[in-house]
Specification:
heterodimer, A: alpha/beta, 3 domains, two-stranded antiparallel ribbon, B: mainly alpha, 2 domains, 11 helices
C-alpha cells in the first residue's frame, strides 16, 4: 500500500515538473496569440472616426483618399483637389459646426430636424467641398458622394510616415517614425557602449588583477540591477539639462540623451557576455601565441579577440535587443516626438515609449488600442529575432569549440 | 613602435575605459544618494503623501511594492524552481530540452512593456481581474520566471554529480535524490537568485503601468483585487507627469534612493551568501 502511494506521488510530482518545465514555452505562445488577436483587428478597417463619413460633391472625381492625405487636407496642408488626383479646384473643409455658416438656426430647425437636408444642400452646392459628417445625417436623399478612406494595411502601417493615432477625422497609423526612432536611439547607444563594454570585458578577463576584478564585478552587477526608471530619472535631472546647455538647445530631451542612458544600461549585458566569450579561449591557444614570442597585448589582439569574436557579436546583438525593448528610461528622456529622426539632437519616440505613453488613453477595442498591440507584436518579433540570432551564434560556437 | 610600448598604451586605454564604466555607476549612485539622503527619514517611509504629493511620505508605494514583490515571488518561485529542476534533472537531452531552453531564453529577452501588454490583455481584460495586485503580481511573476529558472539551473549544475550517484547507489530514486540530496546543496544558490530577482521585480515599471499601478491612492489595499501605488511608478509620476514636478522633486529623490537601496541591499545580501558559500565549498 505504502509503495503504491509513493509511486502515485512520484508520478504526480513528475507530471508537475513536466508541466512547469513547459511553462515558458506556453507563455511565449500565449504572448504571441494574445498580442496578435488583440491587434490584428485593425487591419482592413477604415480609420475614419466611428459613426462618421467623409462626403464630397457628386461631380468630384476623387473616390478615395489615403489616411495621410485626409489628415493633410483637414490640417490645411493640401488645399487643392489636383494634389490628390482630382480636378483643379480648391478644397473647402466642412465640419458639422460649420453648418451655421450656411443656414440660420430656424432653417435647421429647433430639433435639428432639417439638418440632413441642409447638409445635403451644402454638399450639393459647393463642388470643392469635403464634408466630415455623422452617418445618421446621410440618408437616401443625400446629394453628395461618400468618399472612401483607404483601409488600413500592414504595408501602410510599417512604412507610413505619420503617426497621429488620435487625429480627427481620420487617424493615421504610420509606424515608420517609431521604428526608425527605436533603431536610431539603440544604434547610437551601442556605438557608444560597445567600445566601453568590450574594453572593460577584456580588462576584467585578461588584464586586471584579482583585487580590481573583485571591484569591477559588483559594479557591473549593480549597473545591471539599477531599475530603468531610476536611470530615466537620472537622465531627466542630470543628462537632459546637461545636453541642453552644452549644445544650446531649446529642449534637452533628445535622441542623444536616450542613447547615453541606453548605452549605460546596455553595458552590463555587453560586458558579461563578451567576458564569457573571451574566457572560453583555450589556454593552449594563448600559450602557443606567447611561446611564439608575442606579448600579452598581441595575444589578446591577434588570438583571443578573433577567437571570441562571435561571442562578442552575440553580446553586442543582445545589447541592441535590450536597448530596443527598454521602455521607461527612454520614455523619460527622449522627448517623445513621433517624427522621422534626422539628427541626434532632436526629440524622437521609440516603440516601447509609444506603447507606455498611449495605451492608458486609448479606449479599449478601438483602432488606437489595437495599433498599440500591433506595435507590441513588432517589438516582440524584433527581440525574438535578436534572441534567435544570439542562440544561433552561440550554438555554432559550441560546435566549433568541441 | 616597440611592442612593449604598444602594450602599455593598450592596457592603459583599457584601464581608462573600465574606469569610465565605474565612473558611470559612481556618478549615478553618488547623485541619487547625495540628493536623496536628506529626504529619507522615518516619517518619509511611514506616512501618506500630502499636498498633491509634494510633502509627506511614500508609505503606500512601499506597501504596494511589497505586495507586488510578494505576490510575484509566490507565483514565480515555485514554478520557476520546478521548471529549473525539470530542465536540468529530468528533461532528456534532445529536441524538447533544447526547445524549452530556447523558449526560456526568448522569454528572458521579451521587453518588459510587452509583458505589460500581455498582462493587460490576459489578466486584466480576459480573466477580468481588473487593475489589481493579482494581475500585476502575475505579470511581474512571468517577467522574472526566466531569471528564477536560470538561477535554479545554474545552482543545480554546481551540484557535483558524485552526490547524485552516491544517492542512487544507496537505493534512492530520482525524486528522493533531488529532494534529499541535490536541493539541500543547491538551496543557498537558489536563494541568491531569489534575492536578486526581488531586486529586479521591485524596480520594474512598464509591466505594472496597465495592470496595477495607481497614480495616487489615499488608502492601503484591502484585498488582492485592489489597485496599489508602487515605488517605481511613483517615481515616474513624481518626475514626469505630476502637476507640480518642481515641488515634488525632493520626494522623487527620496523615492529613487529607496529603490536604489533595495537593489543595493539585495546585491549585498546575495554577494554575502555567495561568499559564505564559496568559503564553505573550499572547506569541503
Amino acid at each position: 500500500m505504502k509503495k503504491i502511494i509513493s509511486y502515485i506521488i512520484n508520478r504526480i510530482i513528475t507530471a508537475l515538473l513536466y508541466i512547469s518545465g513547459s511553462i515558458t514555452s506556453i507563455i511565449v505562445i500565449l504572448i504571441v496569440i494574445f498580442l496578435f488577436s488583440e491587434g490584428a483587428g485593425m487591419f482592413g478597417q477604415e480609420p475614419t472616426e466611428k459613426g462618421f463619413i467623409l462626403a464630397v460633391n457628386k461631380t468630384n472625381k476623387v473616390s478615395h483618399l489615403s489616411a495621410e492625405q485626409t489628415k493633410l487636407i483637414f490640417d490645411g496642408e493640401i488645399t487643392n483637389w489636383q494634389k490628390v488626383g482630382g480636378k483643379n479646384d480648391s478644397i473647402i473643409l466642412f465640419r458639422m459646426d460649420n453648418i451655421t455658416d450656411y443656414f440660420t438656426e430656424e432653417q435647421i430647425g429647433e430639433n435639428f430636424e432639417h439638418l440632413p437636408a441642409c447638409i445635403s444642400k451644402v454638399v450639393d452646392s459647393i463642388p470643392g467641398i469635403i464634408a466630415f459628417v455623422g452617418k445618421t445625417y446621410t440618408d437616401k436623399n443625400f446629394a453628395g458622394k461618400e468618399l472612401k478612406v483607404d483601409k488600413l494595411t500592414v504595408r501602410d502601417f510599417l512604412f507610413g510616415q505619420l503617426w497621429f493615432p488620435t487625429a480627427h477625422p481620420v487617424a493615421v497609423f504610420g509606424a515608420l517614425p517609431l521604428l526608425l526612432g527605436t533603431f536610431w536611439v539603440s544604434i547610437f547607444a551601442i556605438l557608444f557602449a560597445l567600445p566601453l563594454g568590450l574594453a572593460t570585458a577584456i580588462y576584467i578577463a585578461e588584464v586586471a588583477n584579482p583585487v580590481v576584478r573583485n571591484i569591477l564585478k559588483p559594479v557591473i552587477e549593480l549597473l545591471a540591477g539599477i531599475p530603468s526608471v531610476v536611470y530615466g530619472f537620472f537622465g531627466l535631472v542630470v543628462v537632459v539639462p546637461f545636453i541642453q546647455s552644452v549644445f544650446n538647445l531649446p529642449v534637452g530631451e533628445t535622441a542623444f540623451a536616450g542613447s547615453i542612458i541606453l548605452g549605460i544600461m546596455a553595458l552590463p549585458t555587453i560586458i558579461t557576455i563578451s567576458e564569457d566569450a573571451i574566457r572560453t579561449t583555450p589556454r593552449s591557444m594563448k600559450e602557443a601565441s606567447l611561446a611564439l614570442g608575442a606579448n600579452h597585448w598581441q595575444t589578446i589582439f591577434r588570438v583571443i579577440l578573433p577567437y571570441s569574436s562571435s561571442g562578442i557579436t552575440a553580446g553586442a546583438i543582445l545589447g541592441i535587443g535590450r536597448a530596443i525593448g527598454e521602455t521607461m528610461a527612454v520614455l523619460m528622456v527622449t522627448g517623445n516626438a513621433a517624427v522621422m529622426p534626422h539628427t541626434l539632437l532632436e526629440p524622437v519616440r521609440t516603440i516601447p515609449a509609444t506603447i507606455a505613453a498611449e495605451l492608458g488613453e486609448a479606449p479599449q477595442g478601438g483602432l488606437h488600442y489595437e495599433s498599440l498591440f500591433i506595435l507590441g507584436c513588432v517589438l516582440f518579433l524584433i527581440t525574438m529575432l535578436v534572441n534567435l540570432a544570439v542562440e544561433f551564434i552561440s550554438r555554432r560556437n559550441k560546435r566549433v569549440a568541441s | 613602435m616597440n611592442k612593449r610600448i604598444k602594450q602599455q598604451i593598450a592596457f592603459w586605454t583599457l584601464r581608462i575605459m573600465s574606469s569610465i564604466v565605474v565612473l558611470f555607476l559612481v556618478l549615478i549612485l553618488g547623485f541619487i544618494i547625495s540628493k536623496g539622503i536628506g529626504v529619507i527619514n522615518w516619517k518619509f517611509l511611514t506616512t501618506m503623501p500630502e499636498d498633491g504629493m509634494t510633502k509627506g511620505g511614500i508609505y503606500p508605494a512601499i506597501i504596494g511594492t511589497f505586495c507586488l514583490v510578494g505576490g510575484s515571488m509566490l507565483f514565480a518561485f515555485p514554478i520557476g524552481v520546478m521548471s529549473g529542476i525539470f530542465i536540468h534533472e529530468y528533461a532528456p537531452n534532445g529536441f524538447f530540452k533544447n526547445f524549452v531552453q530556447l523558449m526560456t531564453n526568448n522569454l528572458a529577452g521579451v521587453p518588459s512593456i510587452v509583458f505589460g501588454l500581455f498582462g493587460m490583455s490576459l489578466f486584466v481584460n480576459k480573466l477580468e481581474f481588473g487593475d489589481s495586485i493579482l494581475a500585476g503580481s502575475l505579470t511581474l511573476g512571468l517577467l522574472v520566471l526566466p531569471v528564477v529558472i536560470r538561477t535554479t539551473e545554474e545552482a543545480l549544475k554546481s551540484v557535483n554529480d558524485s552526490f547524485r550517484l552516491a544517492s542512487y547507489g544507496l537505493g534512492a530514486n530520482k525524486l528522493q535524490t533531488i529532494w534529499r540530496v541535490v536541493l539541500p546543496i543547491a538551496t543557498p544558490n537558489i536563494i541568491t537568485g531569489l534575492i536578486l530577482s526581488i531586486g529586479r521585480v521591485s524596480g520594474e515599471t512598464a509591466p505594472i503601468l496597465f495592470t496595477v499601478a495607481a497614480y495616487y491612492l489615499p488608502t492601503l489595499p484591502d484585498s488582492m483585487y485592489d489597485q496599489v501605488m508602487a515605488l517605481p511608478y511613483h517615481l515616474y509620476v513624481l518626475s514626469t507627469s505630476g502637476t507640480n514636478i518642481k515641488e515634488s522633486r525632493d520626494m522623487a529623490y527620496g523615492t529613487a534612493l529607496v529603490l536604489v537601496l533595495i537593489v543595493l541591499i539585495a546585491n549585498l545580501v546575495a554577494n554575502a551568501i555567495r561568499r559564505f558559500l564559496s568559503k564553505k565549498v573550499k572547506m569541503n
